[in-house]
Design a protein that fits this description.
It is a single chain. The protein has a 4-stranded antiparallel beta sheet with strand order 2-3-1-4. It is rod-shaped, with a radius of gyration of 31 Å. The protein is built from 10 helices and 4 strands, in the order ααβαβααβαβαααα. The two termini are 26 Å apart. With 292 residues, it is an alpha+beta fold. Helix content is 71%, strand content 8%. The longest helix has 42 residues.
């Protein structure tokens, strides 16, 4: 009878530890991904900003020397990420592919212009800065027109600010929820040993002596949960880097080390604090209160 009861208690204890590890791992995994998202928000935003192009359409009378000088000056400009010259022939072929037929057969000539697409560095993608650059370029007599998507720039900047704000709010809320979930799981595991705690206290054991094995056990569980969470984060990061290599998520090693170390330490701290307060609660209860 006692043997079967001990086996039951052992299974119950293992189940309790397992639930604590899984809770810690899942919460830290999601918290770590959220941390990566917060810290990489600017990188992601910069990536989308740098996809916006300003197109400079050149007059047919533009000389090759003028075009070459313009390309060189644009390449050396502080605001330029990259430039691409698009000949009128290449533009016509691309347009024909888009519409599915050769429009020049109907017109008899190519109405398109030679152009230079300018891609900006993220810090210069704002309505005011691009408008100023556009105005300076338009003053050149061999440039026909300067075109860019002004509404898209305004919309992109507004959305980036809005998304960044809400990500910070959600991060704060989620961190609070994560602490509560881990704390609840650890409290449940300590609750199953509340009678053991009270018995040790009644035979004269100090509070520090009683807490010590519980804290060490929860720290070990926290380490296991943190390792599982970090393994999941590493797998997700590897997949995202393969799927979106342009974001260069694995290039900033210091940032990655800081995030992984932060998640690991956070798991230990939350486990330690939760166990400390959970054991303190049962140490301060009266014997008859342990049954509620």
């Amino acid at each position: 009878m006692s043997s079967s009861f001990e086996k039951y208690q052992k299974r119950r204890l293992i189940s309790s530890y397992f639930s604590v590890v899984i809770s810690i791992a899942l919460v830290l995994f999601l918290l770590g991904l959220l941390g990566l998202l917060v810290l990489n928000t600017k990188k992601v935003a910069d990536h989308f900003k740098e996809q916006i192009a300003l197109s400079i359409f050149l007059k047919d009378s533009a000389k090759e020397v003028e075009i070459n000088q313009l390309e060189k000056s644009l390449a050396l400009a502080d605001y330029t990420k990259s430039t691409q010259f698009v000949s009128k022939e290449d533009a016509a072929r691309a347009h024909s592919q888009e519409i599915g037929e050769d429009f020049m057969d109907f017109l008899g000539y190519n109405p398109l212009k030679n152009s230079i697409d300018v891609y900006f560095k993220a810090d210069y993608v704002s309505e005011a800065k691009i408008a100023e650059i556009s105005k300076d370029l338009s003053n050149k007599n061999f440039i026909e027109e300067v075109v860019y998507d002004k509404p898209l720039i305004a919309l992109l900047n507004d959305n980036i600010k809005r998304i960044s704000f809400w990500i910070l709010i959600i991060s704060g809320i989620f961190t609070f929820i994560a602490v509560l979930l881990i704390n609840s799981s650890i409290r449940l595991s300590v609750y199953s040993k509340r009678f053991t705690i009270k018995t040790m206290q009644m035979v004269g054991a100090t509070k520090g002596f009683i807490r010590r094995p519980f804290i060490w056990k929860s720290i070990k569980l926290g380490i296991i949960g943190s390792i599982l969470a970090l393994s999941g984060m590493a797998a997700v990061l590897y997949y995202l880097d393969k799927a979106f290599p342009e974001l260069q998520l694995l290039t900033d090693h210091r940032l990655l080390i800081a995030i992984f170390a932060g998640v690991f330490i956070l798991g230990l701290i939350i486990s330690w604090i939760s166990t400390f307060f959970a054991t303190s609660r049962f140490l301060n209860l009266k014997t008859d209160e342990l049954y509620y």
